[in-house]
């Protein structure tokens, strides 16, 4: 069954993650964001969008403002796709996200193959379903409730911002959230609980939160998690209990990547 050796694909993905010339020397965070955005178009009411279909291959979704930078992630996965042409892009992107989380010290995420690549471009979900970082708690809730998540799961999933950074040439925001952006941890929640945040302009003019020496950042949509009492409760829990965060994150990320995937 070498034809469907997903473990071999996973191994090959792990082998391309370390990269001296890229960001914090790992492609992992970018691939986690790619997986997340391929899922984040899901709409429960119409059962449209989500990771099945790999519709980000199509121009309309690739050009959605929120997906800026993700062409780089898809490009890095091309050699893997060439090596294992039988895997769908839809499965590959999600597998890459799951494998990256684990490789960067996070929990093991349950992953199942079975996603297909749509040929019909008209099945691409409309633009505008991704969350916008400058908006408040109503917006964040609307986006995640539309996918079928509750407040606890929202706070938990946002903990992926323990990884990676924002890029002025992609989103216009600037900097990493935590001191080691290639180690999955609960530091994001601990930092959110501090009072070290100044609402300031980034070099591109985007308003965001910087810490005292501008070495770390938070998006307005991250700060919502401590400004909103119902969210804040879970930030406290995850700041104090890393294991609970890891367990809950594994469940929530699995739920995320199954959204809209037809299963018998
Ligand atoms: Fe995120 N995220 N995210 N995010 N995100 C960005 C980067 C990453 C929002 C906005 C942004 C999730 C939720 C949200 C990652 C994973 C997740 C950036 C910077 C913005 C802006 C992009 C750039 O400039 O490169 C908003 C808004 C929300 C919700 O309201 C969730 C949920 C996940 C995963 C479960 C990861 C990882 C990154 C880092 C990417 C990198 O290139 O380092």
UniProtKB/TrEMBL annotation:
Principal EC category: oxidoreductase
Any Pfam family: peroxidase
Domain Plant heme peroxidase family profile: 24-264
GO molecular function, one term: metal ion binding
Biological processes annotated in GO: cellular response to oxidative stress; hydrogen peroxide catabolic process; response to reactive oxygen species
Keyword Iron: yes
Keyword entries, A-Z: Heme, Iron, Metal-binding, Oxidoreductase, Peroxidase
Known EC number: 1.11.1.-
Complex and partners: Forms a one-to-one complex with cytochrome c.
Function of the molecule: Destroys radicals which are normally produced within the cells and which are toxic to biological systems.
Family that this chain belongs to: Belongs to the peroxidase family. Cytochrome c peroxidase subfamily.
Protein name as annotated: Peroxidase
Source species of the chain: Starmerella bacillaris
